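Protein in question passed on here:
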Amino acid sequence: MRIAVTTVLATCVAAAFVVANVVMADASDGGSGVPYVRLYDPPADRLQVIVNQGDGQAFAALAQDPLLRRPEVFSPGPAEAAYRAQRPLLGWLTWAASAGQAALVPLVLILWSVVGFAALAGVLAWLLMGRGVPPSWAFFALLTPGALVTLDWTGPECFGTAAALAGVGLWCEGRRSWALVALVCACLFRESFLLVPVAMVGHGLVVGRQRWQSLVALGLPIAAYAAWVSVVWLRLGQLPSDAGEAKVSLPFVGLAEGWSDWNGADLGSAGLLLLAGGAAVVVGRRDALGWVAGVFMAASIAFGPSVWAQVEDFSRVLLPVVASAVLVLVPHRGTRRTEGPVTGPR
């Protein structure tokens, strides 16, 4: 019941946030986004303005072209199309929910952003309840830039974080089949969630003292992602990595380039992320979620300058760090379902 209440409250918060965004949107000036997809350039209404704010425009393109027949709608070219197409699940969900009707895509994308926010709230509440603490702690992760910007930019990060955390919790409870389904979904929402099964393997080997054979199944999400990228390559003749060095760079190079233009909000958010992630790694060294936070923090040194450009960008990618930190650092009175070795298949 308390999980349901938390989820409903989060849905109300998300809906209010989205309604305010739509009301304030102004189609006459095109909004503040940078269109790189030709679908809504210029936007015809307020919903299209919202979608154009960030990567929502890419998912709108994928929702209208799930078979990748029209990569030319991406202004930078087929390499950019391949980079965006490696994250197919939100586009597929939008295509299905809109019944293939292009006019409904912006509205459906915005509604999915609310559902993703609520899904993250529900998963966080479930994991918090397992630790014997009130699920209201979930809002310490939800009311942060990384979660809120997904409502503004209609992205998959809340959905992906919810699926990844659910996968970790289910795996550590021994419910491996459902865990793998959740992890596959997370990796198809966004490629950065490939770091989650990597962290789980490390946790299983080091903390759980498990044999590697018992962890082989965690390769399934990675294999599913690789299979889809193969399809993208066959359809477009490009790999996601062909999009350039702005996405990934040598260690600390992207960070050094990105922070040169930071303002106070960017700097403060990055500092809090570093503190939260570092504390989660130290306190949660036996917790699978502490390992997730640590692996994301380690991988972040290779993020490109476009990821480190502003808080709206890096906070989305590092949302799993914030969510994991809340779960690891909250004073708990129950058994951490993500700590220690798994209990075995159920």
Summary: The chain is about 60% helix and 0% strand.
